[in-house]
Design a protein that fits this description.
Largest sheet: 5 strands, mixed
Structural class: alpha+beta
Radius of gyration: 13 Å
Oligomer: single chain
Strand order of the largest sheet: 1-5-4-3-2
Length: 87
């Protein structure tokens, strides 16, 4: 299925240096999926590794792309991943 990216999703994709093929792979072969209703209409979350793709309820319109399991982002959009404490 061909995904349609919103303007916001395109902007995020470019900022994060993520390809459309990577987004397609996350949606087609996720490790985790769930539905959230935090912002009005239901959104589907597809997660594979550190990348998460948020779509509308149909799963075909990409609303945004985010880093999953990250504690924040650097100025260029790269994830600040949690690291195990070392002694």
């Amino acid at each position: 299925m061909k995904l349609k990216l919103t303007q916001h999703a395109q902007k995020r994709r470019k900022l994060m240096k993520v390809t459309e093929d990577q987004i397609q792979t996350v949606v087609e072969d996720p490790e985790v999926t769930y539905v959230q209703n935090n912002h009005g209409s239901p959104r589907r979350m597809f997660v594979r590794g550190p990348l998460a793709v948020v779509t509308d309820d149909s799963g075909t319109r990409v609303v945004t792309v985010i880093w999953h399991r990250a504690r924040g982002r650097t100025n260029d959009g790269q994830p600040l991943l949690f690291q195990a404490a070392t002694r």
